[in-house]
Each structure stands twice: as structure tokens, then as C-alpha cells.
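Dear colleagues,

As part of the handover before I leave the project, I'm documenting each prediction I ran so the next person doesn't have to rerun anything. This entry is a single chain, and its sequence is reproduced below.
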Amino acid sequence: MEFFWTKTPKTVKKLLRNFIWEVPNSNNTIYLTFDDGPIPEVTEWILDILKKEKIKATFFCIGDNIQKHPTIYQRILNEGHKTGNHTFNHLNGWTTKTCNYIENFKLCETEHLKLNTEHSLLFRPPYGKMTLKQSKKIKKLGYKIVMWDVLSYDFKPTITAEKCKENVLKNTTAGSIIVFHDSLKAEKTLKKVLPEIIQELKNKGFQFDVLS
């Protein structure tokens, strides 16, 4: 049985302090992130919402999806959002040989570089799973490994939309990196709750920025 924390415990952040879990600040800035796109069914809808709300976010993109939907990836960049590497095929690092994992990571990097003149050095491992050896190799290439402070569970069918909303609103604090997904698995829940979550976070005085 797979298990994730909604709010990543301080002990985990301390133990894995070479990863980025949050971005502490004193001006109530938080960071929305979206994993697994870009795809037309969800990513474009998210971009419309972000544009309407005048906020920026960071998209951790799968290389295969960039290859299939380059115009959506280009739109992400054109509208001032940030992108990061999420491997080419959404690999689980715990079950993938390091050489194959790095090769897949580099395939994704190649797709980013075809369209992104500003080389992004952000990486998020799919499922949050990678080995120490894999992380060392990726960090040696100059990348920051970005995890999360708050996980919405928008992708999980057993989590209701209301619970997803509660997961985010109850656990977000200044500096939080929040994970959503621009994927078909998350589409139904995300389209119900994302506009409401953004409005309530704004009402709490939070401002939004991209990761760098």
C-alpha cells in the first residue's frame, strides 16, 4: 500500500535536506506546482485559470508530453510560468536502474531545451521516488531537486474533491510548495477545486510565485 503525507513532516525535510521541500519567506509567498503535463485536456484549462487570476506557477513536465504537445509547452513559457524536468516517461526511481533513469532524465532535458531557451534546472522525481545515487548524479548536472510541502491528492480517486481542497487549505503556510497534477487522473477533482483553492488562498493573504 502506497502512503504519502499531506504535509511533509519536518523530520523528513531535515533527513533529506539536500532536496527542496519549501521556500521560507516573510512575505506569505507560496508556490503552486503542476506535475505530469502538458496535455490539452487539463494544462490549457489550468493556464486559463492562472491567467484569469494573474498568478504564476511551475510545471514539472514529462518529456513525452512535451514532444506530443509542444504548443502547450510553449504557451506555459510565453505566459511567464516556469518549467521543470519530470523524466521522459514518468519513471519510478526506486524500480529503475540508475543508468536508465539518468538516460530518461536526459531525454526529457532534450525536449525542454528544444523549446526553452532559458535552461530550467529544476527536477522533480515522479512519485517522489529516487535513489541517493540518482539524486547525486542529477545534482552534479546542476539541477535542484524539488519535492513538496503540501500534496493535494488530486490524482487519487478515493480522495473527494472536498478533501483535496481541505488538504491544501489546512496545510499551506508561507513558503509552501504545493503539488497538483495536470493529468487525466486529476482532471475531475482539479476542475472542481482549483479556482476555489486559489481564491481562498488569496483571501488568506498569500501571494504566488514560480520556483527558481
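The mean pLDDT is 95. The two ends are 34 Å apart (CA to CA).

All the best with the project,
I.
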